Recover the amino acids of this structure.
């Protein structure tokens, strides 16, 4: 399925959402925002999908906000922020995640950002709210905001230090320096660097393996635990773990997890 600025396909329980403005290095627009959000929600609601991949067409992942949007805002002296909605009212999303991009924490399926080429500005922010960030060898990352007279947008000042540490986050945000894939791996911004050749198929294969071998119910619950844990005390996280552990022991996926191991066969998880 192809929209004006994205494409969406499902294969082997993996949904791939592709930013599709290659002539503009997939620069982000309000239209793209709507399409990506709709595609993620469609994948989240589809029982045939177990893992979501977000990728970019052409020579890069995303070069940031489209300059036409920035020019319109600059021309209005910042009074017109066309098409941007920062706070959400969607009751399906827990209140603490009802912000632009941050709502992806509430998606009950793993989201993988498959990053090649440029990942700049908004093109860096969006992957921060994905669960996995895999980079091609040619990937380049920059916050860029300080070089545009902007600030640490979309919660990046909260999220980035949690991924790469305070010192690395300060340097990336304040200087807008560009780092390559190996440096991104070293500081923890990405968890894997893969060859540039056949990069997206390699990411999709990792996603397919996850979809085939891991309990969807476990993934759903553990993702909720992890992001809740960012603002919980140890005691709160432990209490939630006890509650969820008791519930898991009565689940179909737990019984299947034991059965397929004992019977030495492939798992057939239902997600229940």
């Amino acid at each position: 399925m192809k929209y004006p600025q994205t494409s969406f396909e499902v294969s082997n329980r993996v949904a791939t959402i592709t930013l599709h403005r290659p002539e503009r290095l997939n620069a982000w627009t309000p239209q793209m925002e709507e399409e990506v959000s709709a595609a993620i929600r469609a994948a989240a609601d589809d029982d045939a999908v177990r893992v979501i991949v977000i990728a970019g067409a052409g020579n890069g992942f995303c070069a940031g906000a489209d300059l036409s949007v920035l020019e319109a805002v600059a021309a209005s002296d910042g009074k017109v922020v066309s098409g941007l909605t920062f706070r959400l009212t969607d009751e399906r999303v827990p209140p603490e995640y009802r912000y632009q991009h941050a709502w992806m924490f509430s998606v009950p399926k793993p989201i993988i950002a498959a990053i090649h080429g440029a990942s700049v500005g908004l093109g860096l922010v969006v992957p921060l709210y994905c669960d996995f960030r895999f980079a091609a060898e040619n990937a380049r990352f920059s916050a860029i905001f300080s070089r545009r007279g902007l600030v640490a947008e979309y919660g990046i000042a909260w999220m980035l230090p949690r991924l790469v540490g305070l010192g690395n986050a300060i340097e990336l945000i304040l200087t807008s320096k560009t780092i390559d894939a190996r440096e991104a791996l070293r500081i923890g911004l990405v968890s894997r660097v893969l060859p540039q050749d056949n990069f997206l198929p390699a990411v999709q294969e990792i996603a397919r393996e996850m979809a085939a071998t891991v309990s969807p119910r476990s993934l759903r619950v553990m993702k909720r635990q992890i992001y809740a844990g960012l603002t919980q005390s140890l005691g709160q996280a432990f209490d939630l773990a006890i509650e969820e552990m008791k519930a898991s022991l009565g689940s179909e996926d737990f019984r299947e997890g034991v059965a397929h191991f004992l019977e030495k066969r492939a798992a057939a998880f239902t997600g229940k």
User: Anything to note?
Assistant: The domain at 6-212 is CATH 3.90.226.10 (2-enoyl-CoA Hydratase; Chain A, domain 1). The mean pLDDT is 92. The longest strand covers residues 6-11.
